[in-house]
Amino acid sequence: MSKVSGVKGMNDILPGDVEVWQHVERTARELFGRFGYGEVRTPMVEDTALFVRSVGETTDIVGKEMYTFEDKGGRSLSLRPEGTAPAARAYIEHSILNQEPITRWFYMGPMFRYERMKTGRYRQFHQIGAEGYGSKEPAQDVEMMDMVVQLLQKLGLTDVSLNINSLGDDACRPGYQNRLVEYLRAHSSELCADCQVRLEKNPLRVLDCKNERCQQIANAAPNITESLCEPCRAHFAEVQRKLDVLGIKYVVNSRIMRGLDYYTRTTFEFIASHPALGTASTVGGGGRYDKLVKSLGGPDVPAVGFGLGLDRLCLLLKESGQQFSPPVDLFIAAADEGSADVAFGLVSRMRREGLRVEFDTRGGSLKSQMKRADKTGARFTLVLGQNERESGQAQLKPMAGGDAIPVRLEDLASTVREALARPSAPPAS
Ligand code: HAM
């Protein structure tokens, strides 16, 4: 029979890897909680118009990469390509501003973009993101960056640099746009077909085109930071000062345009320099979007946020060689058929007592069970036979070698726990 394969660009995450994912998720949840962020879960499918109106019609994400379909009621729906717009929709829909002036949310989950695949770039990928509503102050921008910096530090991912930029606002962006259009017009015949359209409809998006020639042209384009109005310049300067206050290192990089239309003022990206990511080196990005909530029909609320690529973080973490699977504490083997049920009962009891216990449900010879014990990397084994059953006494054997520990079956859990706590305990393999 022909086999059915998974969808291209959508990955299975198997045990062995999933522990790395859980570690990152757990670390982020715990850390973001300390910053006062609550978890929000929005649906994976939204009205297509939400993304068209927020991320922007002429962006690659909306123009080329969305999974859009009609449901049975004839509505145009899309798998979410990102989390900011859905969170803003929920924020508006639940009138959150009426309940609190400042809101801090985080989320994690799959996002979907029909992108050309390579290492670190997938069609179903996962983000950990956060959004803060209600403060236009630079401290809020810096709190966001601090949160990412602390997360990366906790994960031991230190080779990541923070790049920041400011995209200005309604007062100064149009002036910059005019300068940009003037510059791009002089090169228009060299731009790709998409950028010819972008030049007319949304010239900023030419700056994040992936076409090589367009990128060369973009690299020599006028800098947006030179066109900032006084309030935007002051905001950006204060963001930098506050980063200095926290001792966070950064570089100002006026090429951080971000590829989504909703940004105003601060934008930032965290860029890793590890070969495991190839060219997919941006592990996260974000920025301020003070106009988005209002443009989606909500109140006039400033906001700032970020999204981290969980797949990419996990690729980096796997490279770091850290061990995330918890070790098996104990393997229990039955020496003969008659001991199988007692062993089975003991396994169940030890698990109830909180130990990580392995057991071969297939039974089989003691030799094959011990082979299995070796495979599991269990730190101790206990063999249960007729003698042990009758005497209620057994031997706890450290798998790494060393003296066996006599144990009363009644006290097995506490003896294993004590043995594990000793400095001489066998290491987790
Ligand atoms: P973004 O830059 O489009 O921003 O995505 C954030 C991160 O998601 C990227 O830096 C990257 O690590 C990861 N990512 C994006 N596309 C893929 C892909 N195809 N495969 C693997 N990883 C990917 C946003 O989505 C904004 N919503 C961030 C934000 C939140 N801005 C304000 N608030």
Structure description:
The model has no long low-confidence stretch (mean pLDDT 95). The strands form three sheets. This protein has an eight-stranded mixed β-sheet. Helix 12 links the parallel strand 12 and strand 13. It contains 15 helices and 16 strands. It folds into two domains: 247 residues, BirA Bifunctional Protein, domain 2 (2-Layer Sandwich); 89 residues, Rossmann fold (3-Layer(aba) Sandwich). Helix 1 packs antiparallel against helix 5 and helix 5 runs parallel beside helix 9.
Helix-strand blueprint:
Elements: H1 18-34, E1 38-39, E2 45-47, H2 48-54, H3 60-64, E3 68-70, E4 76-79, H4 84-93, E5 103-112, E6 124-133, H5 138-155, E7 160-166, H6 173-185, H7 193-201, H8 212-219, H9 230-245, E8 251-252, E9 266-272, E10 282-288, H10 292-295, E11 303-309, H11 310-319, E12 330-334, H12 340-352, E13 357-358, H13 366-376, E14 380-384, H14 386-391, E15 393-398, E16 405-408, H15 412-421
Parallel strand pairs: 1-5, 7-8, 12-13, 12-14
Antiparallel strand pairs: 2-4, 3-4, 5-6, 6-11, 7-9, 9-10, 10-11, 14-15, 15-16
Helix pairs in contact: 1-5, 5-9
The structure holds histidyl-adenosine monophosphate.
